[in-house]
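Fold these two proteins, one after the other.
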Amino acid sequence: MAATHAETKPKFLIILSRALGDSEFFRPIKKTSNGKTAPTEYPPSSTEARRNCHDDNSKIPDSHDDLEYSVNMVYFQTKHRVWRPHEECPRSRRLSQAKMGDTELNFLAIDFETADYEPDSACAIGLVRVSNGIIVSRTSYLIRPPREEFVFTYIHGISWEDVKASPTFDTLWPEIAPMFYNVDFLVAHNARFDQNVLYTCCDAAGVGRPKTPFRCSMITARKVWGIYPTKLPNVCRHLQISLNHHEASSDAEACALIMIKALEHRE
């Protein structure tokens, strides 16, 4: 008898279902020998494994766009019904839209500029803190990257001469780390880029990665307003947000305002 799709990829199903939530509420299903469906059981250590999975942002879908590809590959079961491919399960919807209508959220908008193609080459960071839908702090720093060569000066205007006396990331981190505490999420425009830079710099500095999840204002702008193309200047022009593009504090503030407007739009 040929193996079913669920039976041939048990590790994928277990990892995906852990990322999506509680196994008792939302579990992948497989077909039994009599043709009926039954929930896939987790191993005894599933509680700890799921906790570790939630602590590792790399194992959680970065966005609802990513999640949709996964949902279309398998069947899911809630307490009330089975959700089959191309149907929108409410659990997946909650994962991508959780608290999106709540303007009382606290979040941190972040933007990095880099010196070269490597993600450890952060040369500037902009940080904008939002509390209850209001910007409460703005700050930016120049960072001395590990190499003197600058490839992207023509984009952001920053050169080695501008940053050679600035702190390195590991020196700066104790000062900026408190801004990452007590927030519901981090947000960036094209968040995968900034998330990669942040995690790589943290790893290089020997400090722990922030465990706060990332949201992407680019994906949010597409979903809320249907804006295409969705580069930061395009979105700011559509929403009438002033922008000095590739200046870290301006980019971070624009990102924060996009998310604030999206939260207000979803109410």
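Now the second one:
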Amino acid sequence: MFPSRSKGLNGDLRCVAGSPLNKAETLLEIKHAEDEIRRMKEGAEQERDRIVRDARREALELQERTRREAEERAAAVLKRAEDAIAVEREAILAKGRREAETLKAAGMANVDRAVAVVLTKFQGALDA
């Protein structure tokens, strides 16, 4: 008189419910299932940690790339502004040089008249 057999969770044959062997097998199967679940949880946690690390690394790389691009754009804007200032400065200096030449020419004309006036007065003083 053998106890009847049935298939367990893992497909192995086991004794009918109520027998001590059946309880031991069931407990063993539960323990194996718990171990498998624990391994799956550990794997999921490791995967989660890897994903978080990758996301942080990608965020830092994106932040660095964005900072570099902003610095490059700022440098380009600054360069354009400096070039525009240099052009404007040169235009102002050229205008100042032209005005200085005009004043110099007018001053030379006044010097010639002043020399003539001084000579006339000196000549008048000598004649007197």
